[in-house]
């Protein structure tokens, strides 16, 4: 999974790519006279972990093509990331409507892709650290950025159902929200028809 990296990693990648492109390999020693050994190790660990370079032998590395890196930064990743969480959560609001309507209503594009997730107030710090560990931008109650991001909504109590491997607020809540907004009329009709049939 390719992720964003801090400025120092970006500069190191730029140096490697400008010298070696994607076809020539290089070694960690390339940075010996530039940074300390601990920093060198940190840079290489960062670039490897985030998918900006790959190991081609025991001591040699190669750059990943910039086109692959930058287009991958806008890939949808949250569906996979959330599977690694250890605390309860529930997709809510528009995100829950998406899930319950089998994505007949979709609120996202690569330019802006918010997810609304209820979490317990006591678990808020866990969730911030969890998403930060994946370089997933996250905000409490409101916020916005380019690409994928999470709006954490702290609550005292969580009600949810598991739907196809993810926790989502109960269907009745999603139906109620979809019913009062004409933008979600199609999703509301879809959900009403599908779940009454059940």
What do you see in this structure?
By secondary structure, this protein is of the alpha/beta class. It has two domains: 7-72, Arc Repressor Mutant, subunit A; 78-197, no CATH class. The chain contains eight helices and eight strands; from the N terminus they run ααββααβαβαββββαα. The chain has helices at 7-20, 37-49, 66-72, 78-81, 93-100, 124-133, 171-179, 185-197, and strands at 53-55, 61-63, 89-91, 112-120, 138-140, 147-155, 161-163, 166-168. A hairpin with a 2-residue loop joins β7 (161-163) and β8 (166-168). The mean pLDDT is 87.
Strand-helix topology:
Blueprint: H1 7-20, H2 37-49, E1 53-55, E2 61-63, H3 66-72, H4 78-81, E3 89-91, H5 93-100, E4 112-120, H6 124-133, E5 138-140, E6 147-155, E7 161-163, E8 166-168, H7 171-179, H8 185-197
Parallel strand pairs: 4-6, 5-6
Antiparallel strand pairs: 1-2, 3-4, 7-8
Helix pairs in contact: 1-2, 5-7
Averaging pLDDT over every residue, what do you get? 87
User: What is the number of beta strands?
Assistant: 8
Number of helices: 8
Give me the secondary-structure category. alpha/beta
The Rg value, from CA coordinates, equals 21 Å
Spans of at least 5 consecutive residues whose pLDDT stays below 50 are none
Instruction: Describe the main β-sheet briefly.
Output: 4 strands, mixed
Q: TL;DR?
A:
By secondary structure, the chain is of the alpha/beta class.
